[in-house]
Amino acid sequence: MDKSKRRRKMVKLIVTDVDDTLVPEAGSEINPEYYDIIRECRKRGIIFGVASGRQKPCVRKLFEPVLDEIFILADNGTDIWSSQYQTSMKLPYELYTELIDDIHELEGYSIMACKPDIAYFEYGHEKYFEHMKTYPYVGEYTDDMRGIKDICKISVWREEGIDPAVERRMQEKWSDVMEVCMAGECFLDFMAKGCNKGKALSIMQGHYGIGREDTVAFGNADNDIPMLQNAAHSYAVAAASTRLKETASQVIGEMKDDAVLKKLREILNIAG
Fold this sequence. Notes:
The chain is α/β, with parallel strands linked by helices. The chain has helices spanning 3-10, 33-44, 56-62, 93-103, 126-133, 164-174, 197-208, 225-229, 242-247, 259-268; strands spanning 13-16, 47-51, 71-74, 79-81, 86-88, 110-115, 118-122, 139-142, 153-157, 178-182, 187-192, 215-219, 233-236, 250-251. The chain folds into 2 domains: 3-88 and 196-268, HAD superfamily/HAD-like (Rossmann fold), CATH 3.40.50; 93-192, Hypothetical Protein, Haloacid Dehalogenase-like Hydrolase, Chain: A, domain 2.
């Protein structure tokens, strides 16, 4: 049996990122042919998952026609959902408040604190909230960001892009006690240590009894690295970060050309 046929026979679980992998950043519409692929996976007994930095309501809306046929790893994997299984992973409150204080020292940066199903924004940072509404996010303003508990993810945003010096400083200060990763050019995300898309994928692999060797993953940004590391067959789109390309088994085409859709057809041996 040749390698491509053996690969197709082995695949039992497929998981993919969303923004700049399947759709443009903040895109609210997806090529409906992805729904057909998901339905075909279901017919073949292949589990299909969507892993995103987006909150769960936003992912659910994008994949509404096939919601009963997928699992979701939202907020960088800290909010896990399927029709049979749900769990979430939260930041320790003491670390959360220390991080909020540290971010407040940064000039020109805005904070989004995420619980499952809702995000919190600070007054005076309306531009961030308005930007996230384009996804569309469910959120509200707060005048006491430190007082919010049970937070799964902090996402720091700068419209002009995260300064590399700021990323380095935050990595050096916080990466020993929490996950710190870029989630696109304008977002720097923080989660509890060990809580990321890779951990979430391993939880679902355990839930379904599927191993790394039978898993396919697609992504574009640094927050996808742990997920791709947990899949034997991993693919980065052409515009992916350098670190993700170094992690992936293969670099494929452009998101705008539906490169993931084409690779999925190849894996499933479906004519395009």
